[in-house]
Write a structure and sequence with these properties.
The structure holds 2 protein chains of 2 kinds.
Chain A (H helix, E strand, L loop, with lengths): L1 H14 L5 H27 L4 H30 L2 H6 L5 H7 L5 H19 L8 H23 L8 H15 L11 H7 L5 H10 L5 H36 L7
Helix pairs in contact in A: 1-5, 2-3, 2-6, 3-6, 3-7, 3-8, 6-7, 7-10, 7-11, 10-11
Chain B lengths: L2 H4 E15 L5 E15 L3 E5 L6 H8 L7 E6 L2 E2 L4 H5 L2 E4 L12 H11 L4 H14 L15 H13 L5 E5 L7 H16 L3 E6 L2 H7 L2 E6 L2 E6 L1 H8 L2 E8 L6 H6 L4 E9 L2 E9 L5 H8 L4 E7 L3 H8 L2
Parallel strand pairs in B: 3-8, 3-9, 6-7, 7-8
Antiparallel strand pairs in B: 1-2, 1-4, 4-5, 9-10, 11-13, 11-14, 12-13
The chains are: A mainly alpha, B alpha/beta.
């Protein structure tokens, strides 16, 4: 366990390029918060004050997979670019331990971005917390963070095809914002896309997230959380298999390192 | 002990082709290794020499289980590098060197602690081992400085510390002194006999002939992915290159002197150098053809100061073998 924690910690510190506090504050705290405020104000202007709350809650929740996917994907790509992957692949390291250690320290980023988004929404948009079930909310953020980590780690295996993590991240972010119910209700999507949305992270967790603000307790949101966890478990299995497969492919095709 | 276990490395018909495609999808194959076969026992320092693109780094990557061969097979410490790669990794360490292969935002010590954790070393043991390695490479006082601030030589020393961290039986050093200043390179070279005296097997790839000559018990020369010569440095100088070197020191290099010497039967190459105020002609001649007197006669026009015959250096042998 100590080795797992040590690997996770040093990998996070060594590769997460937003970790220095000025980058962290702007990218994980202020950036998302002010983007949420901006879109909420536009929505209020265009559609009236009634859309603000569900809109804001969706935007806040979407930043969990946004931030977590960006941070995990950059670590996968930079590990290869810095030639650390050569050392990992030629080590005795347990591949499952390495795979999970790439995710652990990114989980708290989900909490930070939600806290920042909700705080500024309360401050500038009068977001009402009177009915929030805090325990259920914290649990929901944790579950969405876990499923987002699993999905990002699955996507990270495609580093052997993509050398630019920003490309993967933007594609994933676009899918999330359109297909998980953040802005467009799932019921309004064409049938094939509505089915596809069921296997994306955040789709089920977002239902729970909004419900906690109406006072729903853990028991009430449990079905949604379980669905979100199952999605996360699916990506975990795919991600683990993908991690082994990507190692085999990278060694066969000579893709373990990129040019500096 | 079965046959495989006495050998550190065995390669048979090892091949590696890199396939790339251009913008129109047209495939292009690059042959990096072409039927390479070599074997060496445990406990030796084995050198691999060759020009750029010869396949040295490809060979090291295959033996380190970072690259899959496209044909042939190889065993390291008696284990197949493809089917038993996990077992191979328990016996090897590698020093790939260069300006990558570390976390720049972590200190030297933290990098080593990470690599120890990666290799499942017990945390308490890891702390002691990391202290030991930092002392060995002379970085105890700099251990808490971020690696992005280390000099090139310091980074290379961390690479060596990392390569030795798990006390491997077999160590792969891929051009470890490249890019280092003479002091740094000399310091690093001193590690090699020390590690060899501890019973480790070392495979060293290098461009520097004097390094291979001084440090390696056996040397393999490869070119375009093929083995062209293998043996002790003395064997290669004597038998593989098939040359004798005649050094002529003259007062001046007259016009036509080099051309006339080059035309003699058995002369393969003539190099001109400077020896103080005099000039030195280094003539590579084929073994068995005695032309020293003829060379002396021609060089006499320029005023001979000295003429000697000697065995080639490893570099001279290398140039003739790869010509």
């Amino acid at each position: 366990m100590r080795n797992f924690l040590r690997q996770a910690y040093y990998n996070y510190r060594g590769l997460f390029i937003w970790l220095p506090w000025p980058s962290y504050i702007t990218t994980v705290v202020f950036g998302p918060a002010f983007t949420i405020i901006m879109f909420a104000l536009v929505g209020r202007f265009a559609l009236g004050p009634d859309v603000v709350r569900p809109y804001v809650l969706g935007l806040v929740a979407q930043y969990i997979p946004f931030i977590i996917s960006a941070s995990i994907l950059q670590c996968f790509v930079l590990e290869r670019r810095f030639a650390i992957l050569s050392i990992v692949y030629s080590s005795r390291g347990n591949r499952e331990v390495i795979f999970f250690s790439r995710q652990l320290f990114h989980i708290p980023n989900g909490f930070v971005v939600v806290a920042a988004g909700l705080f500024f929404s309360w401050l500038l948009l009068d977001l009402d917390f009177n009915q929030v079930n805090w325990i259920a909310l914290v649990l929901t953020v944790l579950v969405i963070s876990l499923s987002s980590c699993a999905c990002a780690a699955f996507l990270g295996n495609f580093f052997i095809v993509f050398t630019d993590w920003i490309l993967m991240y933007r594609t994933f972010a676009g899918v999330i914002i359109v297909l998980t119910g953040v802005i467009i209700p799932i019921s309004s999507l064409p049938a094939p896309l509505a089915v596809f949305s069921q296997v994306l992270p955040l789709t089920h967790g977002l239902v729970a997230f909004r419900s906690t603000f109406d006072g729903a307790g853990v028991a009430a949101i449990l079905p949604s959380l379980l669905q979100e966890l199952i999605v996360g478990l699916g990506y975990t299995v795919l991600g683990l298999v993908g991690y082994h497969v990507s190692e085999i492919i990278a060694k066969r095709r000579g893709l373990v390192e990129t040019a500096a | 002990m079965n046959d495989s276990q006495q050998w550190a490395v065995e390669c048979e018909d090892l091949g590696r082709i890199y396939t790339s495609r251009n913008a129109f999808g047209k495939k292009r194959d690059t042959v990096a290794l072409d039927g390479l076969s070599l074997t060496f026992p445990k406990g030796v320092v084995f050198g691999v020499l060759g020009p750029n693109g010869a396949g040295k780094t490809t060979l090291v990557r295959i033996l380190s289980t970072l690259l899959t061969p496209t044909s042939g097979f190889a065993r390291v410490a008696g284990f197949d590098i493809v089917r038993q790669s996990g077992e191979v990794r328990k016996h090897i360490g590698q020093v790939l060197g260069g300006d990558r292969g570390y976390y720049g935002r972590l200190s030297g010590r933290e990098n080593l602690l990470y690599f120890a954790a990666l290799n499942h070393m017990n945390p308490r043991q890891a702390s002691r081992r990391v202290d030991e390695m930092l002392a060995k490479v002379g970085l105890t006082e700099s251990q808490d400085i971020l690696m992005e601030r280390y000099s090139r030589g310091m980074k290379q020393r961390i690479h060596i510390a990392r390569g030795l961290l798990m006390d491997p039986d077999i160590l792969f050093l891929d051009e470890p002194t490249i890019g280092l200043d003479p002091f740094g390179a000399q310091e690093l070279r001193q590690f090699i006999p020390e590690m060899a005296s501890q019973g480790k097997t070392i495979l060293l790839t290098t461009h520097y002939m004097f390094e291979a000559d001084a440090l390696c018990q056996t040397v393999a020369m490869i070119n375009k992915g093929k083995l062209v010569a293998m043996g002790s440095p003395a064997d290669i100088k004597r038998h593989f290159s098939n040359i004798i070197v005649i050094e002529v020191t003259v007062k001046e290099v007259l016009k036509g002197l080099v051309e006339d010497i080059s035309k003699l039967e058995g002369v393969r190459r003539v190099d001109i150098g400077v020896d103080g105020v005099l000039h030195k002609l280094t003539v590579h001649t084929t073994v068995g053809i005695d032309i020293q007197e003829q060379i002396a006669e021609i060089a006499g026009r320029a005023g001979i100061e000295n003429i000697i015959s000697r065995e080639p250096t490893l570099e001279e042998a290398y140039l003739n073998i790869l010509k």
